[in-house]
Amino acid sequence: MTVPDARVRAPAGIGIGLRHAHYADFLHTVPPVDWVEVHSENYFADGGYDLHVLRTVRRDLPVSLHGVGLGLGSMTPLDRAHLGKLRRLIDRIEPAVVSEHLCWGATSAGHLNELLPMPLTDAALEHLQVRVDEVQTFLGRPVLLENVSTYVRFVDDQYQETAFLAELARRTGCGVLLDVNNLYVNQANHDEDAVVAMNRLPPDVVGEIHLAGHCVTDVAVIDDHGSRVAPAVWALYEHALRRFGEVPTLIEWDTNMPPLDVLLDEVQSARDLQAQTRPRDTNAQHRGGSK
């Protein structure tokens, strides 16, 4: 079992996802962001342009590796080839943090290429405990696990998702990547209270926060990462800052990619909200005295 370390954190400040549409921007200058996050699997090759760009960016900015293909909750054996490629990328890039999703995505028939929701049961918790321990031991480091957006819940669930994550973190020493937009999506789709969900997580277990846009349809709210962060999600982020402190935060945008300036504007909004929620230094006020 990995020694518990609930304070595994992404680099301080506000980051954005490094996506192909903005490679040229990053190669020509260092944008005013504190760090970048990439999908690990896009950089598993031994060479190529993507890895060249990542290595170049890494000279100036910290990197967070965010996996989308491991499917930790699947019942199939852990993909050792996948883990080997991830470990090799970690050795090459020396990321500040490595994260995965609380999901499954494979059967004996093959990989489904989806972040499918876990049944939140004792049996699933025990299954994931073994798998997370195995991954962390193989990688030689704790990982962060992200709550996912879902469009179904299981009638046999015994936990709320964040309570499930909190218990998994307690057992394995992993941390939590809190996706605030996913909490909002699940609140809208399942009539769940996102604030109550956040309050189930111990303050020191959250090592990174994701913010993203979503799409509202007649059927459901879809987590599509294709627009600006919605006002309701900013409001939840404010609660997250008050509960967890200035946790490193990522602006996540994957579809309908805008110019980089739009993402930088979202970065500034996150910085402004952090400043607004920062506790006032009452000692400094007392030192200044009255005039």
From TrEMBL:
Highest taxon, organism lineage: Bacteria
InterPro entries: MbnB/TglH/ChrH, Xyl_isomerase-like_sf
UniProt region (Disordered), positions on chain: 272-291
NCBIfam families attached to this UniProt entry: PRK05409.1
PANTHER family found in the cross-reference section: UPF0276 PROTEIN HI_1600
Protein name: Uncharacterized protein
Organism of derivation: Paraburkholderia steynii
